[in-house]
């Protein structure tokens, strides 16, 4: 019951304090909950401006993230949702940039994000786990239409170390090794406004 209320709060606004409470609740059940948060090297992709506050080196995987924004900048509205176009069917600018970064960077980077993409939950991962206040308008638009998927995302996260025959257990074991391998942290400063600075 308590976890359900915290999930509702996270769906409204995923602030760090709620994740700490959720981790305490899950730990009382004897399970482990690893948020899989990683620091950003750049600010989130938004349409509020065309310039970048931080420009990363072209050897960084985040370079592909920033380049993706410039490819499709004019196809997204002020919220960060797609306008009809022939370039992409991706609904959110943030998810588009993440997919481009995953497709163009080494597989050694972002292993958890890659697993979430294969399972169909990359959007939940980038909007919830990696929430940043600059993404709020995209997140708010996403969460209204995807409340049940967000709850499923947390459910599959909570059974990550449990072997069972449920649909989510099978998905998890196919896409993530058990126990889950931790993402190698990128050597960078966290960006102000993101969870767990």
Characterize the structure shown:
The protein is mainly α. It contains nine helices and no strands. Helix 1 (2-12) runs antiparallel to helix 2 and helix 4 (93-104) packs across helix 6. The protein has helices at residues 2-12, 16-27, 62-72, 93-104, 111-119, 122-129, 136-145, 147-158, 167-175. It is globular, with a radius of gyration of 17 Å. Residues 161-173 and 175-190 have low confidence and may be disordered.
Feature tags:
single chain, 197 residues, mainly alpha, 48% helix, 0% strand
Give the secondary structure arrangement, pairings included.
Layout: H1 2-12, H2 16-27, H3 62-72, H4 93-104, H5 111-119, H6 122-129, H7 136-145, H8 147-158, H9 167-175
Helix pairs in contact: 1-2, 3-4, 4-6, 5-6
Query: C-alpha Rg, in Å?
Result: 17 Å
Largest sheet: none
Helix share bin: 40-55%
Category by helix and strand content: mainly alpha
Which spans of ≥5 residues are poorly predicted at pLDDT below 50? 161-173, 175-190
Spatial separation of the terminal alpha carbons = 29 Å
Short synopsis of the structure:
This protein is mostly helical.
């Amino acid at each position: 019951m308590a976890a359900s209320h915290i999930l509702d709060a996270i769906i409204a606004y995923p602030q760090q304090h709620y994740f700490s409470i959720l981790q305490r609740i899950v730990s009382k059940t004897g399970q482990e909950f690893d948020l899989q948060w990683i620091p950003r090297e750049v600010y989130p992709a938004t349409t509020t401006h065309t310039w970048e506050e931080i420009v990363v080196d072209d050897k960084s995987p985040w370079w592909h993230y920033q380049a993706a924004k410039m490819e499709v900048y004019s196809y997204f509205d002020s919220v960060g949702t797609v306008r009809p176009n022939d370039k992409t069917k991706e609904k959110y600018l943030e998810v588009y940039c993440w997919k481009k970064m995953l497709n163009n960077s080494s597989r050694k980077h972002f292993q958890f994000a890659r697993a979430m993409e294969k399972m169909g939950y990359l959007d939940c991962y980038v909007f919830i786990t990696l929430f940043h206040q600059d993404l709020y308008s995209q997140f708010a638009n996403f969460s209204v239409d995807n409340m049940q998927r967000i709850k499923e995302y947390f459910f599959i996260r909570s059974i990550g170390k449990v072997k069972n025959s449920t649909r989510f257990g099978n998905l998890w074991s196919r896409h993530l090794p058990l126990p889950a391998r931790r993402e190698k942290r990128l050597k960078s400063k966290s960006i102000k406004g993101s969870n767990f600075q």
